[in-house]
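Reviewer 2 asked us to include a model.

Predict the structure of this chain.
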Amino acid sequence: MSKLLKLLLFILVFIAFISCETDFNPNAEYKDISVVYGILNKYDSVSYIKVNKAFLGEMNAYTMAQYEDSSSYGNNLEVKIEEINGGTISKVFYFDTTTIYNKEPGVFYAPNQVVYKCLTYKQFDTINYEPLYKLIIRNKKTGKLITSSTKLVNAIYISNPNSDYFDLPSAGKKKIEWNSVKYGKAYQLVIRFNYFENGIPKKLDMEFPAIKSKELTGNEGMVVEFPSSFFFRTIQSTIPIIPGIVRNVGKIELIVSVAADDFSTYLDVNAPSGSIIQVRPEFSNISNGIGIFSARSNNTFKNARKLELGAKTNDSLKFGQYTRELGFQ
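Predicted model (structure tokens):
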């Protein structure tokens, strides 16, 4: 939930800057613009849809956004997702309102916010069909309909490595390999190094830039390549030297997150820019609103036999030039 909210906060802040105008005619008619954010993951136990208002009104837009009744629909929305197979509705997911209590301060009101929630674990049909999931939001007061649709994406299976892989810092280059999945576009690898400090579990995530598939049909070979020393240098630069501390090695997790095509485009458009020119292109796949409704998945490839660090890697962590002062046993 926390990762979802952090990503949501970033997206909503950006949308607010392009949608909540501060220079406007104070006598202009009130205009309700719906801002929607929903990313489905077939492996999540709960799915969330976020809906806010962007607006024009008689007050400064940023001041208005701090009031719940200015940017929240409360209980006035009916939110559902239809699962459609071959043009026929096979299942309907109804979302109920719930309140989150830990939204960080930003453009919209905080810390409490209303979101829409549905229990969806093992409910999505992805075995026999490739259904379309259609989002339908109806304003019960005005009758306004907001719609969008997406296909789901599966988690990937990492084909390489399949043994103790990181061994020596001087052992050339390493590759992490997998095949793309249908409807998946952007793939981001994280190598998660689990370890213990005086018996307390810790973790270090090594994130790699996203790579993209050429097609959305799946089975395309995807590769991330890096020097063997990268693993040890990252540990050296991230984990501090603490005299007297005892560290023990845990397991390695290889995690690949997959974004569907629309979500990939949306993230590209809204990514931070180093340019002094702040005008950005807009992307939305929401009908009668703005925002994003798409899909993602992630795969934690965790196997004690395949990814448990072996003797060579342990020796490199204990005695190698990069990490020998970190207290690994």
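The chain has two domains: 2-152, 158-258+298-319. The chain has a mean pLDDT of 81. We have added this to the supplementary material.
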